[in-house]
């Protein structure tokens, strides 16, 4: 029982290692017409009401699935493998990407990698089961194992996308997809990419998609100091391995600094109009000398590269 009690606290956080090599978002540096249709907003706002939401959801799902079906059914190299008219799991993806667009399960990382990992697992497990002469009798087991394994992998990699489970099952149970074999993997990736492109165009006319591309957490490249040998408290020697950026820049990257000359804040921090007005009022008071010439720092929950903003109308995040 003690073993199971300890196991409850086990956790694998791949982002702890992967995020060190993923660069911060460059969207804020792109021209506004481009960055807007990639999901970037200077100031976050509430989503549209459910009447408009229903309209955009209907339009997005129709266009997304229609584009995928049109491309699949009119591309010779794809038709050579005799795919189904439309892969069923895309229907579930359409609900997440064009309806529940703020759900973490429908963001690009989850949609693209969730389908990809599930397809790889589904095809791989199905090929193993097909080594049996009675594959048709155990085909349902292959589907169940594929879905269960895909679910576990998506959870461990932070790419949970429920339609991916359907892709894994289809790889084991759909005759057309079984015959495709490994070709199903690039095909599912291609279709998921087409749906994402449609979402970027249609959802960003009046809504915002995606909310983030990789993670809602701040991204920055981290590096580790070479292992050093130094004295410990007992008079012996110990290894010291410290993350320089974790220690030296965490505080800097999570600050808003106000001075008479301007305001410095994290680039990914979204401010409401009330918060923007408050910061500008504080800056004006400093400029008038009522609070002196010293700078004041206010902690912020988000962190990213810092940008100096000279005026109220130019506040960025």
UniProtKB/TrEMBL annotation:
Does the keyword field hold Transmembrane helix?
A: yes
Tagged with keyword Mitochondrion: no
Q: Point to the regions of Low complexity compositional bias.
A: 290-303
InterPro entries reported for this sequence: HPP (IPR007065), TM_HPP (IPR058581)
Which ranges carry the HPP transmembrane region domain? 50-210
- Which stretches does the entry tag as region Disordered? 230-252, 290-317
Entries under Pfam families matching the protein: TM_HPP
Membrane-spanning ranges = 51-72, 112-129, 141-160, 180-203
Signal peptide span: none
Q: Which UniProt keywords apply?
A: Membrane, Transmembrane, Transmembrane helix
Q: Which domain of life is it from?
A: Eukaryota
PANTHER family from the xrefs? TRANSMEMBRANE PROTEIN DDB_G0269096-RELATED (PTHR33741)
Q: What is this protein called?
A: HPP transmembrane region domain-containing protein
* Species this chain originates from: Karstenula rhodostoma CBS 690.94
């Amino acid at each position: 029982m003690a073993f199971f009690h300890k196991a409850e606290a086990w956790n694998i956080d791949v982002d702890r290692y992967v995020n060190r090599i993923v660069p911060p978002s460059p969207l804020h540096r792109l021209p506004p017409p481009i960055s807007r249709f990639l999901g970037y907003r200077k100031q976050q706002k509430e989503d549209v009401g459910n009447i408009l939401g229903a309209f955009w959801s209907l339009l997005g799902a129709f266009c997304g699935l229609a584009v995928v079906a049109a491309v699949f059914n009119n591309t010779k190299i794809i038709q050579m493998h005799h795919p189904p008219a439309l892969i069923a799991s895309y229907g579930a993806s359409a609900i997440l990407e064009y309806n529940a667009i703020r759900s973490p399960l429908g963001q690009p990382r989850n949609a693209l990698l969730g389908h990809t990992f599930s397809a790889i697992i589904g095809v791989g497990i199905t090929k193993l089961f097909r080594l049996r002469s009675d594959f048709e009798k155990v085909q349902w087991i292959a589907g169940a194992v594929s879905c269960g394994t895909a679910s576990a992998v998506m959870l461990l990699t932070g790419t949970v996308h429920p339609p991916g489970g359907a892709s894994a099952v289809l790889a084991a149970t759909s005759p057309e997809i079984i015959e495709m074999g490994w070709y199903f993997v690039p095909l599912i990736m291609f279709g998921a990419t087409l749906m994402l492109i449609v979402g970027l165009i249609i959802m960003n006319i009046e809504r915002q998609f995606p909310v983030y591309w990789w993670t809602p957490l701040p991204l920055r490249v981290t590096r580790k100091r070479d292992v050093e040998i130094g004295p410990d408290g007992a008079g012996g020697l110990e290894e010291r391995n410290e993350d320089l950026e974790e220690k030296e820049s965490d505080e800097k990257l999570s600050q808003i600094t106000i001075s008479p000359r301007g305001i410095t804040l994290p680039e990914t921090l979204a401010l409401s109009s009330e918060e923007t007005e408050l910061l500008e009022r504080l800056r004006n008071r400093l400029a008038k000398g009522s609070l002196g010439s010293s700078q004041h720092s206010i902690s912020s929950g988000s962190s990213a590269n810092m940008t100096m903003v000279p005026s109220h109308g130019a506040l960025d995040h």
